[in-house]
């Protein structure tokens, strides 16, 4: 078999018996609200810091 090949017999009859009560709720930790924070940094300072972070990520 080459790369990406598969045996079709392995793909047949794949049924899963799952109890819905045992599943994971993706909305279990949903929150509605607002987040605020205060900083003394100016917008220009924050944009400069973001640029520094992006540049260091590009260098890695």
Shape: flat
Query: Element order, helices and strands?
Result: HH
Tell me the major beta sheet.
none
The Rg value, from CA coordinates, equals 25 Å
Q: Report the end-to-end length measured between terminal Cα atoms.
A: 37 Å
Residue-averaged pLDDT, rounded?
80
Low-confidence stretches: none
Broad structural category: mainly alpha
Strand proportion, as a percent range, falls in: under 5%
Account of the protein in words:
There is one protein chain. With 60 residues, the chain is mainly alpha-helical. It is built from 2 helices and no strands. The protein has helices at 8-11, 43-59. The longest helix has 17 residues, at 43-59. The chain starts with 7 loop residues before the first helix and ends with a helix.
